[in-house]
Design a protein that fits this description.
The chain is mostly helical and 436 residues long. 84% of the residues lie in helices and 0% in strands.
Length: 436
């Protein structure tokens, strides 16, 4: 890589990462503030109900809707590098069709199963299915994956970041108003739906506007079959990249469902505050993965392997070191932090919060491994690694739940992230050994 190209790469990464960091910091702030106000407004039991509704909807969304954004970035970047705008526009249409069909399928199944599954997962028998039905409407209106793919391909991370900040801010304002007016749980469910709908449609609208600026619109008139013939391997990559996410999300959502079925909603509420804090911590690392994936794909495709591996090492050591340094003092004062943030009712959530925080440390340290494996074309190895990690998670889940309660569930996340990290490293080492 020449000096000018190297500087251009660093400048582009820094610019995109700065926007995403700003977005994720503000979204994390709004998310934590919203959780604090919700917890103080409703208490542990209602927080547990909200967690169960969200987990149910998100699980069915991930199981029955494949997100095409990673595949579109990979094949779309190749098409644009070859100045093949026709191929790119066909990919955009294919992505939109996948989003629409997946949303219809996931939303329909969520509504049909709600009356049967709601009481089984710990929701109130008389009204639990109605809670689910309200939020599940948002599944029919999600075109975000296509929007993400288009905006990231054209380096419009700024537009996506600003929209995410505004949406998170609107939800926070709504929660503050609901708290001040002493509204019940229905108001918080409606805000959950609002957030889901805006998240699903705003990014897509911005992407369509970007395509129009570049004279790449009118893609819906194109033949869908041409997209498959122009992009051999697209469906395999789509399945493998999504199957990996499905397995990871099963560990992030099913645990809440099982906890609701086997424990009470108050325990789920304690667990939820710990998980939401972990989610907001992990969110701060998302910009790195999102910015690096397109760049790592370009580096690997152009055979600039030295630059590729230096990028992997630097990001891994930096993320693990910084997150560990920050986490240690927080763990020492976690009971006081739980009471300060959520109120005295949530003191018992402190052990769960501590364990999940260290699970986040492991996740952040290894976050670059996912885009690294995808960029190397090792999506099948990524799927195998995630599958093995999920199996270990599932096998250990019930014994740890019976032994330690909600703290045991939190430990399964530490175990999952540890096994997944080691598996990814072994997959990379095996690939390098085969290709010396």
């Amino acid at each position: 890589m020449t000096g000018s190209r190297s500087k251009s790469l660093v400048k582009r990464i820094a610019k995109n990462m700065s926007w995403l960091f700003l977005s994720q910091i503000l979204v994390a702030f709004f998310g934590l503030a919203s959780l604090i106000i919700t917890a103080r407004a409703l208490g542990p039991a209602a927080v547990g109900i909200l967690a169960l509704v969200d987990a149910y909807v998100q699980i069915l969304d991930r199981l029955f809707r494949l997100e095409p954004w990673q595949a579109v970035i990979k094949y779309g970047s190749e098409a644009l590098a070859q100045d093949d705008t026709s191929r790119f526009r066909h990919l955009v249409k294919l992505s939109v069709v996948i989003d629409i069909l997946g949303g219809l399928l996931a939303g329909t199944i969520a509504l049909l199963l709600a009356p049967t599954l709601a009481p089984l997962i710990g929701l109130p028998e008389d009204i639990g299915s109605s809670y689910i039905s309200l939020v599940a409407i948002g599944l029919f209106l999600s075109l975000r994956p296509t929007g993400i793919a288009v905006l990231r391909i054209f380096d419009r991370f700024d537009v996506l970041a600003i929209s995410d900040m505004v949406i998170a801010g609107l939800r926070f304002v709504g929660i503050v108003i609901a708290y001040m007016l002493s509204l019940d749980i229905w108001a918080f469910l409606a805000l959950m739906l609002m957030h889901q709908v805006l998240t699903g449609l705003v990014a897509f609208s911005l992407a369509v506007n970007e395509l129009r600026k570049r004279s790449l619109q009118a893609f819906m008139k194109l033949k869908l079959s041409q997209a498959f013939s122009d992009n051999p391997g697209f469906l395999r990559f789509l399945w493998n990249s999504n199957f990996n996410v499905i397995l990871r999300q099963s560990t992030q959502r099913l645990d809440v469902i099982v906890a609701g079925a086997m424990l009470d909603v108050t325990a789920v509420g304690f667990y939820q505050v710990g998980k939401r804090i972990m989610t907001n911590v992990v969110r701060l690392g998302a910009p790195i993965r999102q910015v690096l994936y397109p760049e790592m794909t370009r580096l690997w495709a152009s055979a600039e392997f030295g630059k590729f591996w230096r990028l992997v090492r630097y990001v891994t050591f930096a993320m693990f070191g910084v997150s560990l340094i920050v986490s240690l003092p927080l763990a020492w004062k976690m009971p006081e932090i739980a009471v300060l943030l959520f109120g005295p009712e949530f003191r018992e959530a402190a052990p769960v919060m501590t364990i999940l925080m260290f699970a986040a440390v492991l996740y952040l340290g290894a976050l670059v491994l996912n885009p690294a494996l995808l960029s190397m074309g090792l999506d099948s190895a990524l799927v195998r690694t995630t599958f093995v990690s999920t199996c270990i998670f599932a096998i250990s889940f019930l014994p740890l739940l019976y032994w330690l309660g909600i703290e045991g569930i939190a430990l399964t996340h530490v175990l999952f992230n540890l096994v997944w990290t080691l598996g990814c490293i072994l997959s990379i080492r095996a690939y390098l050994a085969r290709n010396k």
